[in-house]
Structures are given as C-alpha cells and as structure tokens.
Design a protein that fits this description.
Its EC number is 2.5.1.-. The chain is of the alpha/beta class. 43% of the residues lie in helices and 15% in strands. It has a six-stranded parallel beta sheet with strand order 3-4-2-1-5-6, sandwiched between helices. Strand 3, helix 5 (102-115) and strand 4 (121-129) form a beta-alpha-beta unit. The two termini are 20 Å apart.
C-alpha cells in the first residue's frame, strides 16, 4: 500500500456541464468527493493524501469562478474542523498563501493549529501552488542561508533541497502514487521535484465520479508495478 497518494482533481466543470448544473455545483461535488476519497485512503492505511486544489495558473480563470472556489474551500475547511479532529487527521495547506482572501487564510491557520498534533493521517491541500515556484523558493532560501554563512556549498544536496520544499510538512514528501482524473495525461506543474519516481495513474473518469471502486482500481494498478527507482532488481 502506498504511504502517500497525490491527486489532481480534474473534471469538475465538465461534470457539471454534462449534468446540466452550474460550475459551482461541480466544484461542490468535487469537494465532497475529496473528503470521501481521503477518508477511504486513510481507512486503507495510507498515511498522506495530497490534493491539488488550486494551482497558481488557476488565477487566470474567470473572477467569478475564482471567488467561488475560494469561498468553497473556506466553507469546507471551516465546516470540517470538528470532523478532522474527530478523525484525528492533520490538515496542512501549502502554496503561496499571500494572495488568498484574508478570511480563508484565517481559516487555514485555524484548521492547521487545531489538527497539528495528529500523526497517523495527513491531508495536504495545495492552494495557489506551483511546482516550479516551490523549487525556486527553495533555491532562494538556500542562497539566503549561504549568504548568512549558515550553509556551505558542500552542504547542498537532495536532502537539503527537500527540507526547503513546501512538502517538508509531511513525513513522506514524495508521493508513491499520483492519480489524475478526467483523461488528462500531464502533471500540470504539480510537485515537480517530488514526483521524480512516483507511479502515475491516469483515469478517464471525471473527479466527482471517482468513487471507491475507481480508487481501488488505481491502487491495484500501483501494486502490480515493480518500482526500481532507476536500478535493476
């Protein structure tokens, strides 16, 4: 069983269009699916679930849709604080949080503080996240520390860079399995460093329809693979 499963939740808008619903209703269905998805993962013994909730590039969408997404994320986080406490699930939010609404930022801080002590289950939400900017931010941090004399050139290795990435919040920063729904077959600037040896599973199913059976299908596919990390076994 993988320790860390990442998911790119794609297809909410197409799902809503096919169902004759509003785009906002598609995103609501997607948010509900994420709760069910993570809950089932944790029941199967998976430690960390990370979800690409809002990319840096998503700011280019229509302002009404962006506002709806920010409001929806805040509502779900706020309404699920007691749920995550009851389930003893730690929640972390990573990304450039300087541009998100102040009300959402307060909710993020509240839920992170309320769940920080939990160790066995970890849900990571990537909001205004960019894999390229994550690496760039890590490099800048290392340069600043070098200028202050805190690190030397010979100290810089993969482990140091990983500690500077935003996924340093979890015990398992590199996903074992990445799932992307809706038929798209790309990683779209998500976890560029962390996905170096991640197994990829692309599903044609739209995210709101990605149920337990589809998750099990992805996990079975993962378990059938031989992970060699570039070495012959």
């Amino acid at each position: 069983m993988p320790r860390h499963v990442a998911v790119i939740m794609d297809g909410n808008r197409r799902w809503a269009k096919r169902a004759g619903l509003l785009t906002s209703q598609g995103h609501e269905a997607g948010a509900k699916r994420l709760i069910e998805f993570s809950e089932f993962c944790f029941k199967l013994g998976i430690h960390t679930v990370s979800a690409f909730a809002f990319s840096t590039e998503n700011w280019g969408r229509h302002k009404i849709e962006v506002k709806c997404l920010m409001s929806l994320i805040q509502h779900y986080l706020k309404s699920k604080i007691q749920y995550f406490q009851r389930e003893e699930t730690r929640v972390s939010v990573i990304g450039n949080l300087t541009k998100i609404p102040e009300s959402l930022l307060r909710t993020v801080q509240e839920i992170e503080e309320a769940t920080r002590s939990y160790k066995k289950k970890h849900l990571i939400l990537a909001i205004d996240y960019s894999g390229r900017l994550d690496i760039l931010r890590a490099c800048k941090s290392i340069v600043k520390k070098s200028e202050k004399g805190l690190i030397r050139e010979e100290d810089v290795d993969e482990a140091l860079i990983e500690r500077e990435l935003l996924t340093n919040c979890t015990e398992f920063p590199s996903p074992d399995l990445l799932i992307r729904t809706s038929g798209e077959q790309r990683i779209s600037n998500f976890f560029l460093w962390q996905l170096a040896y991640t197994e990829l599973f692309f599903s044609p199913v739209l995210w709101p329809d990605f149920d337990k059976d589809k998750l099990l299908e992805a996990l079975v596919s993962y378990q059938r693979r031989e992970r060699r990390f570039g070495c012959r076994v």
